[in-house]
Design goal:
Elements: E1 14-18, H1 21-24, H2 37-43, H3 60-73, E2 78-82, H4 85-88, H5 98-113, E3 117-123, H6 129-135, H7 141-158, E4 164-169, H8 171-174, H9 180-200, E5 206-212, E6 216-218, H10 223-236, H11 241-246, H12 251-256, H13 266-272, E7 278-282, E8 287-291, E9 298-301, H14 319-332, E10 337-341, H15 359-377, E11 382-388, E12 407-409, E13 416-418, H16 420-431
Parallel strand pairs: 1-2, 1-11, 2-3, 3-4, 4-5, 5-7, 6-8, 7-10, 10-11
Antiparallel strand pairs: 8-9, 12-13
Helix pairs in contact: 3-5, 7-9, 9-13, 10-14, 14-15, 15-16
Bound molecules: 1-deoxynojirimycin.
């Protein structure tokens, strides 16, 4: 059978998985690492489901070589991970911790030796506790500047080998429910980090952000519903992504937020709007809209209770990933797009022989990848896909109860087992098309 190339991903497509330091590393009090706000959160009784903590997590700090070997066996050509800020700079500023620096040196070298390109996130939520104590965390613009300094230092340390950098992960989520000033300060942190990375760079970098966008998809693809979805995108992403691309808060922002607006300066908006080399989008769900005869020109249709969901009750909406890439081009032009996270938590069950036959996750992957491929075939600037996550790990408030991995982590023995979805993903990468 002749297979046309339009069903294929391009040969240089980035195929990865993603993780974050606090969710996998463990070794929280080892080799000079100081606590982050997440170590503190985990000490609050009842804060995390089952009072789990990232103290040991997946013990990746000691098992990174085994983990990289598994990545290689899955044919991954990229791996997105984050730096534990308080492992590198225990006080969040000031002196480096040589052993912490060394851990990432070894991890990066191990990845490169295995043909896997590192994609490094500077800030994935684990603010050094010292900065929380000294400045009140993201309430202070000092912290935004400290992130810039940290980014510069890690670029000086690692950018001889690391070209791909992500400033912040999901400002939308780590500032959720917080005043708009905090969102603004975090955006500023992104801008300073971008400048810091470039100031410390040892080679031309590929630097961007990873943001949780909300993506509405049209109830069906007719011009009026497609246009409605595109309008909705401007409202739901007005707080974070639009200011990054436009260097200003939009009309849709001021229409939605009228009180407690952040204090800003023109200079700060310029920092926030510093051009990125790529956009990284994390997407797990979405919503369905249709055109409507109202002021905004669209309405969101509620998901019926019987709509497919993941284990945490998040609606599974694969067409949103296509719409997201499309909306990105509509509104932000041809900036290269990477899906920096996408995945699902499932009721994984180990078979007697240790296998995990997670056909729900396979279906999730297949559907989402088909829409990513469609985006590529339509000429949209999609360049890569990172599945969340490489392995089951510490899912923040959900502790270890929510498993997102392509690889199962046995938290008692720390044994890793590639799930059927991991094998499927490896075959897709090898074939370069959705199977
Ligand atoms: C978003 C976050 O970046 C990541 O840390 C989290 O585990 C996944 N989504 C799943 O909730």
């Amino acid at each position: 059978m002749q297979i046309t190339t339009s069903t294929h991903f391009p040969a240089d497509f980035v195929w990865g998985t993603a993780t974050a330091a606090y969710q996998i590393e463990g070794a929280v009090a080892e080799d000079g690492r100081a606590p982050s706000i997440w170590d503190t959160n985990c000490l609050k009784p009842g804060f995390i489901k089952n009072n789990d903590s990232g103290e040991r997590a997946c013990d990746h700090y000691h098992r990174y070589k085994e983990d990289v070997a598994i990545m290689r066996s899955l044919h991954l050509n990229a791996y997105r991970f984050s730096l534990s800020w308080s492992r590198i700079l225990p006080d969040g500023e000031g002196g480096l911790n040589p052993k912490g620096v060394d851990f990432y040196d070894r991890l990066i070298d191990e990845l490169l030796a295995n043909g896997i390109t590192p994609w490094v996130t500077c800030y994935h939520w684990d603010l050094p506790q010292a900065l929380e104590d000294k400045y009140g965390g993201w309430k202070s613009k000092e912290v935004s500047k400290r992130l810039g300094d940290f980014a510069q230092r890690v670029a000086e340390l690692y950018s001889d080998r690391v070209k791909n950098w992500i400033t912040t992960n999901e400002i939308h989520v780590f500032t959720m429910g917080q005043p708009l000033q905090i969102v603004h300060n975090a955006l500023l942190g992104h801008g300073h980090a971008l400048a810091g990375l470039r100031a410390g760079a040892k080679q031309p970098l590929n630097a961007g952000f990873a943001e949780a966008l909300w993506s509405e998809h049209p109830v069906y693809d007719t011009p009026e519903h497609i246009a409605a979805a595109s309008r909705a995108f401007k409202y739901s992403n007005a707080r974070i992504t639009f200011p990054i691309f436009e260097g200003k808060y939009s009309d849709e922002y001021f229409e939605q937020y009228k009180e407690n607006l952040p204090e800003t300066t023109d200079e700060e908006m310029k920092v926030i709007g510093t051009p990125v080399d790529f956009a990284g989008y994390n997407i797990y769900s979405g919503s369905v809209v249709r055109a409507a005869d109202n002021a905004r020109g669209y309405e969101v249709i509620d998901f019926p209770a019987s709509y497919p969901k993941n284990q945490l009750g998040w609606n599974i909406a694969p067409r949103s990933i296509y719409s997201l890439i499309k909306h990105s081009q509509d509104h932000f032009g041809d900036v290269p797009v990477y899906i920096t996270e996408n995945g699902m938590t499932a009721n994984d069950k180990e078979q007697r022989n240790g296998e995990v036959l997670d056909i729900d996750r396979i279906e999730f992957l297949r559907e989402h990848l088909a829409h990513v491929q469609r985006a590529h075939a339509d000429g949209l600037p999609i360049k890569g896909y990172f599945h969340w996550s490489f392995m089951d790990n510490f899912e923040w408030m959900e502790g270890f109860s929510a498993r997102f991995g392509l690889v199962r982590t046995n938290y008692r023995t720390m044994e890793r087992t590639v799930k059927l979805s991991g094998k499927y993903y490896a075959e897709v990468i090898k074939a370069g098309r959705v199977l």
